[in-house]
Structure formats: C-alpha cells, structure tokens
Design a protein that fits this description.
By secondary structure, the chain is an alpha/beta fold. It has a 5-stranded parallel sheet with strand order 11-14-17-10-18. Strands 1-2-4-3 form a 4-stranded mixed sheet. Strand 6 and strand 7 (114-115) form a beta hairpin. The chain starts with a strand and ends with a helix. 44% of the residues are buried.
Length: 522
C-alpha cells in the first residue's frame, strides 16, 4: 500500500515542503531514500520502539520510504513523527484517516513522547502559503507556531494524541475554528506594522548609571536614532563596555514585521527562549575567540551565525583587535548589504543581517593613548601596529568612531541627577517615527543607516555652507566616498533628533567630529 503525507525542511530561514511517500509490499527490508542524514536514518530505531510501546508495530514487510525532493538533504530528527505516522497509515494500522491537508513534524522518544524541533515558525508560514489546513507539531512549539492565523495549530505531546486527532474529524473542525479566532497574522499580514507595546521586556540597565561621558552618551543616542554602527576607543575602565551594554535601553521597539523576522531566525537556530514572539531587540556579544563560521553562519548543517542572530538588534564586539583578522573581515559584506550570502560546493544560502555594530577597543597594547607619556604607555609605533589590526575597509563602514577618555574623580563622585534611558528613548523614538514616515514607501528601509545612494540624494540635500564644510574635511582628512555617505547619513539623523527638516552645517560638523579614526593616529 502507498501513502503520502507531508513534512517540512528549513533551508536558510525559509521552509520547503517535503513529501513523504511510504510504500509497503511483500518482502523484508527497510529502505529510506531521498538524501537523509544520519539522524534521519537512525529514526528507524526510535520509530520501532515508539510504535511497539504504544500497541503498534513495524510491519514485517518491505518498507520503502521516499523523501522528496530527493535532491535536498534532509537533516535532524524532526521527521520521526512524519515517518512513524506514514508507516501506521501504509500498514493499515490506522484506517479511514486522511492527513494530506496537514504538515506533520516532531521528534519521537522511545515511549512515544514528542520532543520540540527547530524552525517551527518558518514551517507554519509555509503551511499557510501552501494552503494546508494545519500543522501538527510538538506541544512546546505550539505558541511559536500560533503567531500564524488561518491554519490550525495542533500541539501534541505524545504519538497517541496524533492518532486521536486524525481519528476524530469533529475535533479537527472545532480546533481549526478556535485557531482562526486568534489575533495573529494572516496571509499578507506578514507586513503588519502592529505595535508590540506592552509585550517588550524593558532592559534593566539604564544610562543614569553612567557617570560623566556626556559626549559618548550623545553619540550613542545618535547611533540608536539612526541605526548607525559605532566604535568606542579608550583606556580600560573608561566605561566603553558599560555604555555599550546600555544601548538596548534606548533602542525603539521592534515593529511587528521586525519582531516576526527576528523570531523566525532564532527559531531556525533553535535558541528561541520565549514562547511566541521575540519582542526585545537582540543583543549579541560573542567572545573574541569566535570562528568566522560561528559569526557569519553556515557549516556542514547550515545555521545562522551571530550576525544573523543580531538581526534588527545589536552585535557587540568587545576588544575588537583581539578578534582574528579573518573573522573581522567577513563583516565587510553584511555591514554593506545587510545580509550574508554563504557559498559552498553543495549549497548557496543567504541569511538576513541588518544589525547595529557596536565595538570597543583600547588605543594601544598598554590600553592607554600613546600621547600621555606615562610609565605604562605604548609608544606611537606600538599603538599604530595595534590599531592597524582593524583594516581600513572595515573602519570605513563604521559611521561613528569616538575617543572615550577616563572619567575624572569629580565625575565619579558626583551625586547629581543623570539623565535616564527612558528620557533618551523618547527622543530616539521621535526621530525613528520621522524616519518611518520618510521611508514608508520604500521596502526594507526603516532608519537612516539603511539608506542607499538614491535615498541619500532624495532626503539629504546639503546647503552651500554644509557642502563647503564637508568639502574642506574631505580634502584635509582624505575621507573615502563611503565615509562621505556615512557622514551625511549621520548628519541626517542629528537633524531628525532636532526635528529639523533640512540638514544644517552644525549637523554636518558634528557628524564629521564622529570620525575619530580618520582624524587621529594613536
């Protein structure tokens, strides 16, 4: 007897439908074809034990299972439930059951319990797009898939629950009706800009904890308002890391589209810690020993890297020169294109990577500026060698580069009021609202840092005085064309923070002052 049912495979951050064909004929044997990996091949043992422990059996006949399309590699244990249910149908241990309108995915324990799997949100979106009535998934993944409306989300915790569901048609109808009433996305609702206000867990760290460093706080506010990359250069203990870790507290909330896309990436990576939508912007801080594959993604079984896990959030690289040079250089493409494309002999895959790069570093091996001439300082040559670990092309892609000086005793001991993150966030949010209105007709552009040449020409017109200032700066400091564009983007953000319609000369001057690495040699 031949039976067809459907599962799903995740490739990149999208899912594709996998057709499972189970054929049982006379003879003896178990043949699983369609490029399964070792975890899929081992499913035979898990399935046999799970069926036996629940009153079913593997038929003593020739079982042939095809997983189509055969050219796509099938990975992981998430197909256990699909294969087991297919065997039950093909061997007539279940009769009068029609599962063709459902995607079925889940990992089986030997007792028939169903364990959670990765990438369920992508699978649910696929089920909606492909016209399935619903998706049968592990109970632990139910809230995640429940973000999708228009299909039934059937969360199950045991093999017997799956059998019960498909054996009771009335249960299917009532369940589908219940799912359709959820206030989630539907069809083109993936583009919904629904506010997540009230759902986001507010960061506990606050800028009021930082003593002094008003200029650095201002730069962080500009970076948050426009989504700009920022590099802080200063001695140990000056507050670089402390300030950077408080950046999420002044970042605006994700809109619904951003939250859904971010949740999808974390779901595929299998690190989704919340039930349902990921509402807080990610803040990823990998150690400097990280490999290039772990940073950008890929591997034998392709997974999103840290730059994709930081999508719509922050990638914080502390002690930037301590990262391997090859690791840092792979950042150049995603910083420019806001996605990463990985080419391998067997596959080509793309992951989104629109993140804010926030980095910190010491100005020399000793940790201090070479000009201070203290006992522990490095000389100018040592400082230059240290800084040169960061290539020019990478620095060129960092919009704001700023010196962080040590905090004086007077500032540290000052008990006066310091501005809270909530106050800064209000200004940042107003600026972002201006930008969202400006770019509302441009797909994929939400803030100033995402502008390309066409948007810069349309929205960043400079008056004569501003042009004279930036022209003089380019001659004197030999800015590249990329640095020129990034200065204008930062100036546009500064103008938005002030509510100015046009970019003024003071905005350009402030943006130029944020290019420390172009102005100084340590």
């Amino acid at each position: 007897m031949l039976t067809k049912l459907y599962g799903s495979a995740v490739f990149g951050i999208s899912a594709v439908t996998i057709t499972i064909e189970v054929h049982i004929a006379l003879g003896i044997g178990y043949h699983l074809v369609g490029m399964p990996d070792n975890a899929v091949k081992e499913s035979h043992y898990r399935i046999a034990a799970a069926l036996l422990n629940n009153g079913y059996r593997i038929p003593g006949k020739k079982i042939t299972i095809n997983m189509a399309p055969a050219a796509l590699k099938k990975e992981g244990a998430a197909y256990d439930l699909t294969l087991a249910f297919g065997i039950l149908l093909a061997s007539s241990q279940l009769k009068g059951v029609d599962s063709k309108d459902y995607l079925i995915m889940g990992e089986l324990s030997l007792d028939g319990s169903i364990l959670p799997v990765k990438g369920v949100l992508a699978m649910a979106i696929l089920a909606l797009e492909e016209g399935f009535k619903g998706i049968v998934i592990p109970k632990e993944n139910e809230a995640e898939a429940g973000l999708i409306v228009g299909i039934a989300i059937i969360g199950v915790s045991h093999l017997t629950e799956v059998v019960h569901f498909f054996s009771h048609a009335s249960h299917q109808l009532s369940f589908s009706s219940h799912q359709a009433s959820n206030h989630n996305i539907k069809g083109e609702g993936l583009k919904d800009q629904k506010s997540l206000s009230g759902l986001t867990n507010k960061p506990s760290l606050c800028f009021s904890d930082v003593k002094g460093q008003e200029g650095i706080k201002r730069a962080m506010e500009v970076a948050a308002a426009g989504g700009h990359n920022i590099l802080l250069i200063g001695p140990p203990g000056a507050g670089k890391t402390m300030i950077s870790k408080r950046l999420p507290s002044i970042l605006p909330e994700m809109n619904f589209q951003e939250a859904l896309e971010t949740t999808k990436i974390h779901s595929v990576a299998g690190i989704l810690e919340t039930h349902g939508l990921l509402c807080q912007r990610p803040f990823r801080s990998p150690h400097h020993s990280i490999s290039d594959v772990a940073l950008v993604g890929g591997g034998s079984f392709p997974q999103p890297g840290e730059i994709s896990l930081a999508h719509n959030g922050v990638l914080f690289l502390d002690e930037l020169p301590e990262f391997k040079k090859g690791v840092l250089e792979v950042l150049r493409q995603p910083l420019e294109d806001r996605k990463i494309t990985i080419f391998r002999a067997k596959y080509t895959i793309s992951y989104p990577a629109s993140f804010m790069l926030v980095a910190s570093m010491n100005p020399s091996p000793s940790g201090h500026f070479s000009q201070q001439n203290t006992l522990y300082d490095s000389n100018a040559q040592e400082a230059q060698r240290y800084v040169s670990k960061i290539s020019g092309p990478l620095l060129d892609r960092i919009d704001i580069q700023l010196e962080v000086q040590a905090v004086s005793y007077e500032k540290l001991s000052d008990t006066s009021f310091s501005e809270k993150s909530a106050v800064i966030l209000e200004r940042v949010q107003k600026s972002r609202d201006i930008q969202l209105k400006r770019f509302k007709t441009i797909k994929g552009v939400f803030h100033n840092a995402q502008m390309d040449v066409n948007e810069i020409q349309a929205f960043c017109v400079l008056n004569d005085e501003s042009q004279l200032i930036i022209k003089a700066a380019m001659k004197r400091l030999r800015f590249s064309a990329r640095a020129y564009s990034r200065i204008i983007k930062v100036a546009r953000t500064i103008a938005d923070l002030e509510g100015a319609i046009d970019i003024q000369s003071v905005h350009i001057a402030e943006a130029i002052q944020y290019r420390t690495m172009d102005r100084n040699t340590y």
